[in-house]
Every structure is written in C-alpha cells, then in structure tokens.
Amino acid sequence: MATTTLTPAASAYRSGLYAWLTTTDHKKIGIMYLINSFVFFFIAGLMVLVVRAELAQPGLQFVTDATYNELFSMHATVMIFVFIIPILAGFANYVVPLQIGAPDMAFPRINAMSFWMLPLGGTLLLLGFVTGGAAAAGWTSYPPLSEDRPLAAIGSGQDLWIVGLVLIGTSSILGAINFLVTIFKMRAPGMTLFRMPILVWTVLVTSVLVLMATPVITSALIMLFIDRNYGGSFFDPRVGGDPILYQNVFWFYSHPAVYVMVLPAMGMISEILPVFSRKPLFGYKAFVFATAGIGALGFSVWAHHMFTTGAVYLPFFSLMTFLIAVPTGVKMFNWIFTLWRGKLTLATPLLFALGFLSMFLIGGIDGAFSAAVPVDFALHDTYWVVSHLHYVLFGGSVFGVMAGFYFYFPKMTGRMLNETVGKLQFVLMCSGFNLTFFPMHELGLAGMPRRIADYSSAAGWNDLNMLATIGGFTIAASMIPFLWNVFVSLRSGKPAGDDPWEANTLEWATSSPPPPYNFDHLPEIRSERPLFDLRHGRTAGH
Amino acid sequence: MTTDSHALVPVEHSPIAGFAHDSRGGISNPVLGMLLFLTSEVMFFGGLFAAYFSVRANAPQWPPEEFRATLQILPLVGPATILLILSSFTCQFAVWAIRRDDRTAFLRNMTVTVALGITFLLMQGTDYVTLGSEGLTLSSGTFGTTYYTLTGFHGAHVFGGVIMLSVVLYRGMAGQFSSRHHDAVEGASLYWHFVDVVWILLFSLLYLLPGR
Q1: Is B51 part of the contact surface with chain A (CB cutoff 8 Å)?
Q2: Could you give the percent of chain A with pLDDT greater than 90?
Q3: CB proximity B25 to A under 8 Å
Q4: Between the N and C ends of chain A, which has fewer C-beta atoms within 10 Å?
Q5: In whole angstroms, what is the distance from residue A448 CA to residue A440 CA?
Q6: What is the CB neighbour count within 10 angstroms for residue B132?
Q7: Global ipTM
Q8: What are φ and ψ of residue A520, in 5° steps?
Q9: What is the Cα B192 distance to its own chain's centre?
Q10: CB A235, CB A243: distance < 8 Å
C-alpha cells in the first residue's frame, strides 16, 4: 500500500459538525462513543423508571404487561450492548493510544466505522417500538419464547433486535482487532508489555474476549434469525431442533461479555487508585496475571447460567465459577493494598472508585455464592439474580465509568468538573443504588421471580418493592447534578492544565485536550510510571 | 507538556503512515489485523459447527430417511472442492510472485484464483438448484437447515473472498503492489486460505462422514 501523507486537522475541538462526523481521530471518536453511550443510557434508564414505577405496588397501574415485557427487555439490551460495552470501548479509544504513546489507533478509518455502527445498531433495536412492538422475550431472547410469538407484542421488533445486535457485535469485533493491533504494534519506544498501564492490559484481555466470544453470539443470532424468518429449525424441538443449544451458544458469549463489561472499568479503577493514594499499584504483575486468568477462565463458566436446565455438567461449571473468584480476589487485594497507608485525596474519581470496590465486592460475593449448585437451584430466575447482576454491572461497571469520567474529563475538555456537585452526585447515586438493589436480595430470597409486571399483595413483597422504586428514582435524581456538572463545567469549569491529578501515565504528558496525533515529544519510558519518573528525576539505570 | 531533554520521538505531520509498515520489523499491522479477524471468523464458524454437531447428535437418524441419498447425487461437489483447493495454491503462487517483484506471474495467478473462485460459486449454485428440485430446502428439518446454513455462509465467504481478490487484482493491474508494498495481497490470501480450510472441513463433514 502506498504511503500517504495525512493532513492534520487544524484544531481538535473547535472544529465544526462536519469535522466531527467525518473524523478518524481516536480522541474525537472516543468522545463520540461516550456521548452516544450516555444518550442510550438515559433512554434505557427512562425505560426502567417505568418498570420500577409499575412494580412499586401490586396491580397494573401504568403499562400493560406486554409493554412491560418490551420495557425490561429493551432496558437490559440497550444498557448492556449500547451503553456499558461501548462506553468502556469509548474510554479505551480515547486513552489507550495516549497511554502507550501512539499517535492514533492502528486502523483509524475502521475505528470510525466501528463507532458509526453503534448509533445505527441502537436505533434498529429501538425501532421496534414504532413498528408494532419491540423485542419482549428478555435480553436473553431464549427460544421458543423468541420464536413462537406467544406474546402479542413480538413482531418485527425481535428481528430488528437480532439485526441491531449483529451490527453492534460486528462493531465490537472490529474494535477489538483495532485495539489488539494498536497495543501490539504501536507502543512507543521503551513501552514494553510490562510497562504498559494497567488499563491497557485490561483492554488487551477484553479485546481477546470480544474477539473470541462475540462471533459466537453472532452465529446464535443468525440461527435465531433463520429459524424465525426462513423456516429453519435449529432451536425448534418439534422438528428436531434444540432450544438448549441456543442457551449454550448465547452464554458462550454472554458470560465472557460480563468480563468485557467490567475489565476495562477495573483498569480505570487501577489507574485512579494509585494516583489518589500517591502510591504505585500494589502487585502490578499479579494484577496483570489475574486479568489474564479471568480472561482464560471466563470461557469455561458459561453454563452456570443454565444449571437448572439439567443439560449441563454441574460439578465442572460450578468448580470453574468458584475458581474465577480467585483472580478477582487477587485484584481486590491489589486495590486494597494500594490504598493501604496511602496519602488519600478524597476527590470525586476516588469516591466513585471506592464505590466500585465496595459494590463490586458485594456483587462478586453474590456471584460466588450462587455458584453453589443447590443455592443456584433455589435462586434461579429470582430477584436475587437481578440484585447480583446490578451489583456487578451498575455497582461495578457504572461506578467505574463515573470514576473514569471524572478522572478523564479534564484531559478530554481541558476543564475540571465541579467537586462539590460531583460529591453530591456520588452520594445520591450510591445511596439510591443500594436502596434499589439491596432489597432485591431479600425479594429474591422471598421467592419473587424476575421479569414479572405484577405480584400478589399477599406475597409480602410490597414494602421492599416500594423501597427499590424509591431507590430507582434516587438514582435518576443523581443524574441531574451529573448533567448540570457537565453542562456548567464545559462552559466555565476551572482550567485543568496538562496534569491536574499529578498522574503517572503518558496521557497526562500532553496538553489537555491533546493535539491531533497526541505528542510532540515523549518522555523517556523506563517504568510503568513514566511521568512519576519524570517528576522525581528518575531516569535510566535506577 | 513538561520540558524534557530526553525527547525520543519527533512527530511529523503524518505519524500514522509510518506505522503501517513497521520499521521495527515483525508482522505488519494489516496482516496482523487480518489474522485477528480470521480468529473471530474461526469462532463464528465454530458456533455454526457446534450447532451442526449438536442437532446431528440429537437426531435419531442422520441423514433423515427422506434425504438418505440426497447429498450423494451431487456431481459437482468433488470437482468444486478440487478447484477451490487449487485456487488456494494459485493464490499462494501469486503471493510468492509479488514477494519477488514478479508482477506478471502475480497477475496471472491472481486472475486464475478469481476465476476458480467464481467457478466454485457457480457450481455451488448449480448444486443448490439440484437439491432444491430434490426437495431439500432450508425448512426441511434440521438436516436442511444446517446444510444450507453451513454451506450458505461458506458460500457467502467465498463471495466475499472473490470480491477481495478482485480488488487486489484490480489494484495489481494498476501497479500498486511491489515486493515492499503488498499487505493487501498477503491479507486477502490469508482470508482465501481460511475459506478453503473451512470448505475442506465442511466437505468432510457433509459428504464424507458416514451417516448413522
């Protein structure tokens, strides 16, 4: 291929709409990932507010049960596929090239394409609402429920759901290839693998998971599509198909996807904790190997979602699920001992990081608990599961996203977010979160099944449901200071300077926001903390 | 940017361009990208193959009674397989030719490869028509569904490969490739070999593996 000369854009952030729409700059693409993800976050959040309002009391007050099915199905689908996964990819897009001292991603145009598939895929998912009903078989869309159309609402929405997800999956795969090539091939001189920031390591392992797992759900979705539209019989037991087959292929992706949704958040936490405790990360190599361990074990636990089918080998999947708690526990020690005797600055990014640690710990313990087969049999498909998964994906991933957002906002915009408003948001979000999801443990133990629109007032679930609804609206309220903070800080926030946090890694060595192609000069890279070395005069031969 | 006397990388206006052909040696970015893409393709076909094995193992009889001999009537499968394997060889000859700057041999071999790919697709189309007239369709139970899904997705990949190779051929005729710049050729040929390997697996599975 001929070598072409690229013309640098005039200015990175004062550019017009056309420049944004056609950009291949990883920083602009990263910011567009964030914006797009937050838009879908608010859409899916509104959906679940309706769900919580409906569940506040027994009886059907606000929506029909058909609409309820659409709402909770699309809430989960949009949150997982168009919010958490892409927003973490967005942070990675922005930060990884900066952290490894690269001028851009390896394939900038493929990078732009990966992004643009997301608003398109997300819109296709939502289009069901105006074409006679969105997908309503849950985000898992198990056949025969998703094939036989026993629910009146399932029309073209389910097919749009499939097409949207295939598109989003393709975007993920292309993104993963891009990250891997970038990380393996574009590192600055001196940036050896074991000097890479932890976030880069987590993105590396995440990309491997995406690369190996996402195509499998693509195959599952395509088989579902063939069954639904062309008279196929992969999953139709009446003509020799096997519905359990779908569950296997589905979870072969969807369990590793849990790690796709949490590893980059763990990476951001691992950037934030050392900075705000003024210490290096405790046990860098242990953390790296734990991350790789989670990635490897992540492929051998999928059937713990299927214990009650009676079609999986319980001892194996139970054991592997317990095992995967070990590397996760290693990371807990990494984080706690990073904080231990550190000089803590309780700024908003650290607060959210601490929120991540404590909430994810609860979610993780829930997970290890449910890995025991008899426990799982009792708790399967109850609100316990809803509680567990939200402690991991909200208490973990979303708190991580917020921590990363407060941490990287100064780099992306050149302005600081307001600390007081940030802390208000944290208090509201953390209390609202626990108010919503802690009672669900209790509801699950009391036997309340998930995915129901109505329940008997005699079941004894009334108070806890009301509490969860109040919590849900508190979380929604915490978005007001968040949006206000972003809005005001963008206009009149305190100027950030290059390195407002006195951080350790290369992204803070360039201006805020960084120029096109990121660096004029790179500091010497002699450890995983090149900026620390620079500040403290440590160079070669220490 | 903090002042620093140890500046290592002076960055010019086109820093990306330099990275495409890594001066530090090793595998080039586009070829690595293609290898990773093929990894994802392996997993995609892995999902479809897993489905095939699963429904096959669950079936009381395979192939089912009414299609016991249906696949054996296809006269073109054997020749098509031979042609596709051959095209992998011509594709590799083209790669070796461009590596030693022999553009004539490169273009000749690439043309043959594209022609063989198109021939394979035509033969597969003919087979589909024959099978359709025998009553085997996508909706004839798990046998028909898996057969058409597996061969159909393989066929779609051959089609994609033919397009890829045609672009490479066109660019080759425009003189864009040399021994130093031919990542697209390497990438497309890797893809083509992958498509070939999938077919060898499919052929063994669908036509050679005895039923029960």
Answers
A1: yes
A2: 87
A3: no
A4: C
A5: 9
A6: 12
A7: 0.92
A8: -85, -45
A9: 4
A10: yes
CA distance B11 to chain A (A): 6
Contact residues, chain A, for B145 at CB < 8 Å: 226-227, 232-234, 241
pLDDT of residue B25: 64
Find the helix packing angle between A108-127 and A85-99, rounded to 10°.
Answer: 170
> ω before A144 within 30° of 0 (cis)?
yes
Spell out the domain ranges in chain B.
41-208
From the list A6, A181, A188, the residue facing B14 with the nearest CB is A6
Chain A contact for B9 (CB, 8 A cutoff):
yes
Q: Give A123 to chain B, closest Cα distance, Å.
A: 25
Question: What is the phi-psi region of residue A469: left when phi exceeds 0, alpha when psi lies from -120 to 50, beta otherwise?
Answer: alpha
Q: Which of A128, A115, A129, A217 is nearest to A165 (CA)?
A: A217
What letter represents residue A454's amino acid?
D
DSSP letter assigned to residue A188: P
User: Domains in chain A, start-ordered, CATH in brackets?
Assistant: 25-541 (1.20.210.10)
Place of tokens 């960055």: B11
**Is A311 touching B (CB cutoff 8 A)?**
no
Q: Which residues of B touch A506 (CB under 8 A)?
A: none
Amino acid letter, residue A415? R
CATH superfamily, region B41-208: Cytochrome c oxidase, subunit III, four-helix bundle (1.20.120.80)
Entry pTM: 0.93
